[in-house]
Amino acid sequence: MRPRGKAEVNPLVSSAHKDALLLWMGFQNPECLVKPLSRRHTDPSVIVHAMLLMSHRGGHQESKKKLEISPSETMKAEEENYKEEAKEPKSEDWRPPSVFGAADLKNRAVGLYNIGQTCCLNSLLQVFLMNIHFTKILRRISVPVCATQKKKNVPYQMLLLLEKMQCGKQKAVSPRELVLCLEAHRVTMFVQYDAAQLFLTLWNLLKKQMKNPELVEKLSDLYTISVQEHLACQICSSETKRNSSMLSLPVPLLDSDSSMLKTLEKCLQCFFRPEELTGHNMCFCEHCGKKTPFQQSVKLVHLPQTLTIHLKRFCFGRSAYIHKISNCLPFPQDLDFNAVLTEQQCQAYDNEKAAWRYELFAVVAHSGTTSYGHYCAYIRSLTECKWYCFNDSFVEQVSWDDVKSTYGHSDLYWGQTAYLLFYMKKQPQ
């Protein structure tokens, strides 16, 4: 699926966008931190980026005629879907016996209907459910006792959705029950979302509602990044350290001189590069008794099985206008952090660093502008080693060249650009 130029706008869809833009949810930290970080992540530039992500909206608008589904067509498809489901025996306590992801049980990929600006949610759900390491955890959750608890339990509703995707006969299923479950937890649905923000929201709800401490630990081990923050006075050399956890690495696409970084590896190096705090950015030093220049840095301690990288493509222009950086940013299929970071940027033992070799698993791509757009996901089946494009209810097998089309291009108004990258740790040789 190649990026295209400006798409023709369906009047029904654009009207829905116009109404949806009047709605927006409250602030959540877009840097995807599990625990709060120190001054480095609360300085003005990060606050500006947080405001930006609150303003950025990524909703649903199809860019291909064959993918446009009117409300009546969606209702008709769902009606047929429910008829098929009614023919099959159901058990709310049933557990899928295999360890495969959503698309792997019957060697086919299953889509999710867009039930009202849910393309962002659909893309993230596919990334979760195609991850066999995540579904292993999901199948071990405790089933809620009463019907009310089942309706409000996000892990359980996600498990039921996995069951529908694996055992149904449809090409696509509806995430309606899970959407209602999220609404019960004050997650505003049927509005346009930022994928990084919604990913954090989903993950926190999953972690909160998994009552088994062992499963919570496994979920954290699967996704959580550990870093150590350093803040050193340049006058007296006193230094403070703090351990922090992150759900994703929010890497910049522009360096300190606002020049475009050329590769993902350069973006990662920029994120871990020490920063000098001088002038109005100076910090108060208790030893010196006054504000002094400081150097702050982040050192990598631990990387999880599934590594999430957030490409910060949205920023303020000179006139305070929010714009999207659509420039080309290549990302590799194989990523070795030992070849990317220096010894000074790491705070880990050799056996930990030996496991920092990754292979690309999924790409959540955004097409459109800061005002309106659409999300889809490119995911590599871990059992078939084939790439699929999940575009709501439309799913097709694609090539690596199709995935590379999400690198971006500055001349494309409606082109797809990678926004979230998911890397899977390689198995030891």
Automatic annotation (TrEMBL):
Keyword Protein biosynthesis listed: no
Listed EC numbers: 3.4.19.12
Regions of compositional bias (Basic and acidic residues) in chain numbering: 59-68, 75-95
Region (Disordered): 57-95
Catalytic activity: Thiol-dependent hydrolysis of ester, thioester, amide, peptide and isopeptide bonds formed by the C-terminal Gly of ubiquitin (a 76-residue protein attached to proteins as an intracellular targeting signal)
Listed GO biological process terms: antiviral innate immune response; negative regulation of type I interferon-mediated signaling pathway; protein deubiquitination; proteolysis; regulation of inflammatory response; regulation of protein stability; response to bacterium; response to stilbenoid
Keywords: Hydrolase, Protease, Thiol protease, Ubl conjugation pathway
CDD domains: Peptidase_C19
Coiled coil regions, renumbered to chain: none
One GO term describing the cellular component: nucleus
Domain USP residues, every copy: 110-426
Similarity annotation: Belongs to the peptidase C19 family.
Protein name in the entry: Ubiquitin carboxyl-terminal hydrolase
Organism of this sequence: Gallus gallus
